[in-house]
Write a structure and sequence with these properties.
It is a single chain. The protein has 478 residues and is of the alpha/beta class. The chain is built from 15 helices and 14 strands. It has two domains: 208 residues, Rossmann fold, CATH 3.40.50.300; 186 residues, P-loop containing nucleotide triphosphate hydrolases (Rossmann fold, 3-Layer(aba) Sandwich). Bound molecules: adenosine monophosphate (AMP). The site of adenosine monophosphate (AMP) has 16 residues, from helix 3.
Length: 478
């Protein structure tokens, strides 16, 4: 279905044609006509699905029909979880609205981490469209820099992430300041209970839009799982970048410290790498991202801050240097590549210790990736016992057994082994007792020589699951 048949005006169709959008994406096909009709929309769509244009195009069209009132009023409010997403969504509105006739729309991105004064100045006389993070929006409102009493359309973009980042309170306060009559559009990749509850309160007879988001349903992304010992990951990454000629790589790690540490390691190995995380100043964050987007830097090492919403055109490779905590985060991370029909590669590094966690992520996504080993980087560490997974399907974020659970399970297994081996030959080697390293001595059977008495009465020895010895990597990257 071509764009004009969705009911969009010629200037908007011209703008998307210039962006080389040949046809609307599924979320656009479903949402645009409903938003043009003034309906509420409840869309489950992740970034990469074209969701920004799905709400931006019809909003621009509806705004063009009515002029802005005088005063501090905001006509359309879009709430987003991160500063980068605010800037990105505002920029998309400007691009899509560039050919609209009449006075140009006032589109503002508002977010914290930068001085509030320029934002207060920019808000003088109100604005047509404000794309904001919740905290700064409330700050500005409390300074009387804007009024939310005339908002005709509210968009919650990445609603699940707004809750993840702890904006529930702010959201409640903002909603209380909006007029009762308005159009509500809710976009979210997932629908945890908080988002479901919010949707129930917020939306009136919404049009439901559901777009398939499972990574398995994105054939454009080639997913690979490579086994490697943790201390050798930086070397392997460098090897992969060089042998595959990857020009731009987004590398996900678990902590802010790791972004700096790995970026530094890669720079020492001669790669052009930068770090990106939430503790950088807003200026440094914007600079790191724009240099990466403009392909001025080849490797950006990031925390999950960059896994949602950030749109990097033609990003060929994403690497999970550290695995994501949840299956949902996996989807968001790998969704940074293979955007809007492009192809991409998503590589996950798997170690003996993270093997079981990755298996759970695969299970959630109905994936079964072959495990690869790269010559020269074959792992030597041995696998730890798989975590105990509850029948309810836990095992990932929030549902994983705690360290104590694992210790208890290991102790119970050890107890069982002792009991069942009494009188039989002792189990030897890997797999005999998953709580024990392959080379560790086992309790000999009952009836063994006096010098090595056994004892089913002994307390179960391995109170702790075996973890492979981890030496900090001190070598230089070759
Ligand atoms: P989003 O899901 O809004 O973050 O968009 C992801 C990417 O898809 C952005 O780079 C958009 O420019 C691009 N995009 C949006 N709609 C289309 C379309 N109909 N055809 C091709 N690319 C699109």
């Amino acid at each position: 279905m071509p764009f004009p048949s969705l009911g969009l005006s010629a200037p908007l169709v011209r703008a998307v044609t210039e962006r080389n959008y040949l046809a609307p994406t599924p979320v656009q096909t479903a949402a645009i006509p409903a938003i043009l009709r003034g309906e509420d929309v409840w869309a489950s769509a992740q970034t990469g699905s074209g969701k920004t244009a799905a709400f931006a195009l019809p909003i621009l069209q509806r705004l063009a029909d009515t002029p802005r009132e005088r005063g501090r009023f905001v006509r359309v409010l879009i709430l987003v979880p991160t500063r980068e997403l605010a800037a990105q969504v505002a920029a998309a509105f400007r691009v899509y609205g560039r050919h609209q006739p009449g006075p140009s729309m006032k589109i503002l991105a508002i977010f914290g981490g930068v001085s509030i004064n320029p934002q207060m100045m920019a808000l003088r006389g109100g604005a047509d469209i404000v794309v904001a993070t919740p905290g700064r929006l409330l700050d500005l409102e409390s300074h009387n820099a804007l009024s939310l009493s005339a908002v005709s359309t509210l968009v919650l973009d990445e609603a699940d992430r707004l809750f993840d980042l702890g904006f529930a309170d702010e959201l409640g306060r903002i909603l209380a300041r909006l007029p009762a009559r308005r159009q509500n559009l809710l976009f979210s990749a997932t629908f945890p209970p908080e988002v479901e509850t919010l949707a129930g309160k917020l939306l009136h007879s919404p049009t439901r839009v559901a777009v398939e988001t499972a990574p398995a349903a994105q054939p454009a992304i080639v997913q690979r799982a490579i086994e490697v010992d943790p201390p050798r990951r930086a070397q392997l990454l460098r090897h992969l970048i060089q042998t595959n000629g990857w020009t731009r790589v987004l590398v996900f790690v678990a902590t802010k410290y790791a972004t700096e540490h790995i970026a530094e390691k890669l720079r020492k190995a001669g790669l052009d790498a930068s770090a990106f995380h939430g503790e950088l100043s807003q200026g440094a964050r914007a600079q790191a991202l724009s240099r990466f987007k403009e392909a001025k830097v080849g490797v950006l090492v990031v925390t999950d801050l960059a896994s949602r919403g950030i749109d990097i055109v033609r990003l060929p490779v994403v690497v999970n240097f550290d695995l994501p905590r949840s299956a949902v985060d996996y989807t968001h991370r790998i969704g940074r590549t293979g955007r809007a029909g492009e192809s991409g590669i998503a590589v996950s590094f798997i170690s003996a210790e993270t093997h079981a966690h990755f298996a759970l992520i695969e299970k959630r996504h109905n994936l079964n990736l072959p495990r690869e080993q790269i010559p020269g980087f074959e792992p030597v560490e041995v696998e730890v016992p798989a975590p105990i997974v509850s029948p309810a399907g836990g095992g990932i974020k929030g549902k994983r057994p705690s360290k104590k659970d694992k210790l208890r399970a290991a102790a119970a297994r050890a107890q069982k082994t002792v009991t069942s081996t009494a009188g039989a030959s002792a189990p030897v080697g890997r797999g005999a007792d998953p709580a024990r390293p392959p080379s560790a001595p086992v309790n000999p059977p009952a009836g063994a020589t006096k010098s090595s008495p056994v004892s089913t009465a002994l307390p179960p020895r391995p109170a702790k699951p075996f973890r492979p010895l981890r030496l900090p990597f001190r070598g230089r990257l070759r």
